[in-house]
TrEMBL record:
Lineage of source species: Eukaryota, Fungi, Dikarya, Ascomycota, Pezizomycotina
GO biological process: mRNA splicing, via spliceosome
UniProt name for this protein: Pre-mRNA-splicing factor SYF2
Gene Ontology cellular component list: catalytic step 2 spliceosome; post-mRNA release spliceosomal complex; Prp19 complex
Subunit record text: May be part of a spliceosome complex.
Function according to Swiss-Prot or TrEMBL: Involved in pre-mRNA splicing.
Main subcellular location of this protein, as a coarse class: nucleus
Nucleus keyword on record: yes
Length: 237
């Protein structure tokens, strides 16, 4: 009995040690940011690449030994994309800014290939039923679709898009994107100390214009208040 009791005590002690070690490991894992780990790994890969390039006389030949053609091409595309993104950070015009926002939004919306194929099939069936789409077999046996009235293959004069009705999930996603953009805009305004003034009429186009109007009001409101009130009542001559 004493031996069994000592064995149970030893097992209990080992279990406590194992549980404590697992708890520390889990706490460390939860405290670690996955995005930070990814960033560190990316920096490590970039530093290794630069170090290898600096230490190797014929870098391209060395890389051809160690990497496959696909890996080398992927790395070159990545560096080219990174350099292009670095050069495209600054503000050039509003068209470029809108293009960058559009590309960022596209990254957050994965393509739904199944829904696209379903809509395409339904569009073909509607066009074929209305007589606007005809299947023609060529001399080599290939089947092609001929758009007779322009209802399937859209052109500049096509008006079939007015009959398209988006799904509720797509509308909800658009509403969420608009809300997120508005929340980000308001957050940036608060960071700059530009709170929205909801009291009174908005007589300014930006914050600098608002400050200028406030400065004018401090000096000239006592002279123009009667005129402004008369204009608002409609009794001014």
């Amino acid at each position: 009995r004493l031996d069994r009791f000592k064995a149970l005590q030893a097992r209990q002690k080992a279990s406590r040690s194992a549980n404590l070690q697992e708890s520390k490991t889990e706490r460390t894992r939860q405290a670690t940011d996955p995005a930070l780990l990814t960033q560190i790994e990316r920096r490590r890969a970039t530093a290794s690449h630069k170090l290898l390039k600096a230490e190797t006389a014929d870098f391209e030949r060395k890389r051809a030994w160690d990497w496959t053609a696909e890996e080398a091409a992927a790395w070159d595309r990545r560096l080219e994309k990174k350099a292009k993104h670095r050069d495209d950070v600054g503000f050039a015009d509003y068209t470029q800014q809108a293009r960058k926002v559009y590309k960022r939004q596209l990254r957050d919306v994965p393509p739904d290939v199944a829904a696209y194929e379903k809509q395409k099939k339904e569009a073909i069936e509607r066009a074929a039923a209305s007589g606007g789409l005809e299947i023609v077999e060529t001399e080599d046996g290939e089947l092609i679709a001929v758009d007779l009235d322009g209802s399937f293959y859209s052109t500049a004069e096509s008006t079939e898009f007015v009959n398209s009705k988006p799904e509720k999930a797509a509308v909800d996603r658009l509403v969420d994107d608009i809300r997120k953009a508005e929340a980000a805009r308001m957050k940036k305004r608060r960071e700059r100390g530009l709170e929205d003034d909801t009291g009174g009429d908005v007589t300014y186009i930006n914050q600098k214009n608002k400050q200028f109007n406030d400065k004018l009001a401090r000096f000239y409101n006592k002279y123009t208040s009667d005129i402004r009130d008369s204009f608002e009542r409609g009794t001014a001559i």
